[in-house]
Design goal:
Largest interface: A-B, 45 and 45 residues
Strand content of chain A: under 5%
Largest sheet of chain A: none
Oligomer: homodimer
CATH architecture of chain A: Orthogonal Bundle
Chain lengths: 189, 189
DNA sequence: GTCTATAAATCGATAGAC
DNA sequence: GTCTATCGATTTATAGAC
């Protein structure tokens, strides 16, 4: 079945935002990719603010679901954290893309308030999940040297996001692996 | 003595780029802040590409100098790394600003080639300095548990840059301190 | 070195026909 | 739901007077 226009617009907008940033994509870009006129986009999303809020909201939900899938498929904390790292690496799309939350964070002044609170919520969700994963990994001994799960979570999320920045800037995911090597070596397999 | 116009433009452009991103500032913004007409900016910097390359080049030189100052003032690896962390925190300007390298990295497709290679050079310089600092800190026992300085450097730079992202997005430097807490606790004082 | 004036393109958004 | 047509603002950049 063919994608409906609204979903096609969300997909195109997410890809554009993650590749070029909030101030780097326009309705004209989406119109060309989806194959409709740019005026028609306003029927589905009245403003760019509304569209941006919609893709950030959808992105958070998809990521929460992905974390649930990891929990279902991986038993140990170490395996779960390794799976999360892999997902952040996959989000790079070969060095052409970023996590939407990372991409939006450098454009704070351009963002509507809705998007900012979505970004805050996204990170809160991620930090809670990572902290729980460290707690498990400390208990089941699948992550080495866990002292404070909350502190580890804050450090890990920063590292994941920061590692994406260099990999994106140099269009080379190897830089992501480079930054995450030390953490990965703490995980049992 | 009053700042010359060219320097005033560089200062204004750097501040704008670090606050709003490459695609988020315009010649009109700089003109208003510096107090000249926007056409006059082209006399000093013919294109936005040239202006951006100039601020990135100056930023790299200033940061290299700052690292030299740290080396001169701090004897141990731990003290040097702590000073670098403090500098990344100060660059936040209370949550209103980012490292220029961080800000530019999400706008790769809009950047002229000159700026991209400057960004690559900036990170290479930082990684070399951080790795050397870890090496020293391992030797003088002022940084705990140092195994591979190069890997530590890659992880640390990612963490510094990533920690800025959240602090900027939420306009609160406390989030930066949160992410860096674990690393800071490894440093002797 | 700074100005006025202007160009050509693009931005997000709206009105109204179909 | 998509279209054509258009609006007003803004973008980077240039020409030429002073």
């Amino acid at each position: 079945m063919a994608k409906d226009t609204k979903t096609a617009l969300l997909d195109s907008a997410e890809r554009a935002a993650r590749t070029r940033g909030f101030d780097g994509f326009s309705y004209a870009d989406l119109a060309q990719e989806v194959g409709i006129r740019k005026a028609s986009i306003h029927h589905h999303f009245p403003t760019k603010a509304a569209l941006s809020a919609a893709i950030m909201k959808r992105y958070t939900q998809a990521f929460a679901k992905a974390c649930q899938s990891i929990d279902a498929e991986c038993a140990t904390g170490g395996a779960r954290l390794a799976a999360l790292i892999d997902r952040y690496r996959a989000a790079l799309e070969g060095g052409q893309s970023l996590c939407l939350c990372v991409s939006f964070s450098t454009s704070r002044n351009s963002l509507p308030a809705e998007v900012i609170s979505e970004i805050v919520g996204f990170r809160q969700m991620m930090l809670a999940w990572i902290a729980a994963t460290y707690h498990l990994g400390g208990s089941d001994r699948s992550i080495a040297m866990v002292h404070d799960p909350a502190q580890e979570a804050a450090a890990t999320l920063a590292m994941l996001e920061g590692a994406q920045l260099r990999a994106r800037a140099e269009e080379d995911p190897a830089h992501f692996d480079n930054a995450l090597g030390l953490l990965r070596s703490r995980l049992a397999r």
